[in-house]
Write a structure and sequence with these properties.
There is one protein chain. This protein folds into 2 domains: 137 residues, Aspartate Aminotransferase, domain 1 (Alpha-Beta Complex), CATH 3.90.1150.10; 233 residues, Type I PLP-dependent aspartate aminotransferase-like (Major domain) (Aspartate Aminotransferase, domain 2). Helices cover 37% and strands 15% of the residues. The chain has 13 helices and 13 strands. β5, α8 and β6 form a beta-alpha-beta unit. α3 packs across α10 and α11 packs parallel to α13. The longest helix is centred in the last third of the chain and has 17 residues. The protein is globular. 51% of the residues are buried.
């Protein structure tokens, strides 16, 4: 068998081996981003059950349930310039399909795609599947902001797209308006499309607000926004995502979407549309999530790690060099086997895993009792981590 070249460039997804080790040792999971907090809205669950019983068990229109797209449009964007639900929104099977569809729609084999590093591992996989070549731009560990000179140097005649993620995974950086304006200038100069993963936009904690690329002059007409309810509403198993783009781009996205999945789960689309959780004050978990963030930072700085406090999202990147000379793979393994706590080695978020050897990623979308247990386990042998 001869595998396609693009499959050879897809990252191996080695996180599964770490999670198997974590399960073997009964470790508390602060590794994967699957929400353990908040719990899904109870009314949302009831609406899903009602939709199943009402017979919404066959294919939905590939573009997505119209009522759901209308609710999404009402919850997005600056008031008065919301997207057209009929021509500018498409419901997809989670943010993962949305990412793949976006890149397959705008990237040809050999095209270059700019990516800020550290980054979600799935970005590099999706770029590889599209046949693209990543151009990685390192951000600064002091706050994970963008080096604008390095960003400009990454653009060129072969650049076709840039992937942004704000708030970011793994570091939680929220892109500033200055950073977004710089991206806009570069994209206009080089005729580049922005693919913006904004799935964590519900979780912003600092003075820096989340600004969608769809609301930035110069990016509005050349952007594809990826949204998802997996983390924001704690329904990752439902695979509810969406794509926002202008009508011309949306027409292309919908063709690729049909070729990949043909549509997202019908009963869950009905449930989300009718549960009244989009764009309302009924569902505002960010302030409580900020408390979980602060507790995670306190716990891990308490054992000597250096943590840049994230402005958004549900992860933090911690520097381990103050407590160990070993790399993050070894440190994470020792934390699992000796401390019973699972985190992710930083190498998963860099094009060259060696560049992440001083960091680990910690998920903090967890309930209080999880952090209680983490504190108990780490306190059993406080010298173990130095």
């Amino acid at each position: 068998m001869v595998a396609a070249d693009r499959s050879r460039n897809v990252p191996p997804g080695g996180l599964a081996a770490l999670l198997n080790t974590a399960r073997e040792h009964g470790a508390v999971d602060l590794a994967v981003g699957t929400p353990r907090w908040p719990e899904p809205d109870p009314e949302l669950i009831e609406h899903a059950c009602a939709a199943l019983r009402a017979g919404h068990n066959q294919y939905e229109h590939p573009d997505g349930n119209v009522e759901l797209r209308t609710r999404l449009a009402e919850s997005l964007g600056t008031p008065g310039i919301a997207p057209d639900p009929l021509t500018e929104l498409t419901v997809v099977v989670g943010g993962t399909e949305g990412l793949a569809v976006a890149l397959l729609s705008v990237v040809d084999p050999g095209d270059e795609v700019v990516v800020l590093e550290p980054c979600y591992e799935g970005f590099l996989g999706a770029i590889a599947l599209a046949g693209g070549r990543p151009r990685l731009v390192r951000t600064s560990p002091s706050g994970w902001g963008v080096d604008l000179e390095a960003l400009a140097a990454a653009f060129g005649p072969r650049t076709k797209a840039i992937v942004l993620n704000s708030p970011g995974n793994p570091a939680g950086h929220v892109l500033s308006r200055q950073e977004l304006d710089a991206v806009a200038d570069l994209c206009e100069r080089w005729n580049v499309t922005v693919v913006a993963d904004e799935v964590y936009s519900a979780y912003v904690y600092g003075d820096q607000p989340h600004v969608s690329v769809a609301d930035v002059p110069g990016l509005t007409e050349r952007s594809i926004v990826i949204g998802s309810l997996s983390k924001s509403h704690a329904i990752s198993g439902w695979r509810m995502g969406f794509l926002r783009a202008n009508s011309a781009l949306t027409a292309v996205l919908r063709k690729v979407h049909i070729a990949t999945t043909a549509g997202a789960p019908a009963p869950f689309q009905h449930a989300v549309a009718r549960a009244g959780i989009l764009g309302t004050d009924r569902w505002r978990p960010a302030e409580q999530m900020r408390r979980h963030r602060d507790r995670a930072v306190a716990i891990f700085t308490g054992i000597g790690l250096r943590c840049a406090v994230p402005d958004g999202g549900c992860y933090l990147m911690a520097d381990i060099t103050a407590v160990t000379e070993e790399g993050s793979d070894e440190f994470a393994r020792r934390l699992v086997t000796g401390g019973g706590v699972a985190v992710v080695p930083g190498g998963f978020f860099f094009g060259d895993p060696r560049d992440g050897t001083r960091f680990v990623r910690i998920a903090f979308n967890r309930p209080d009792e999880t952090f209680d247990e983490v504190e108990r386990r780490l306190a059993r042998s406080p010298r173990r981590w130095s």
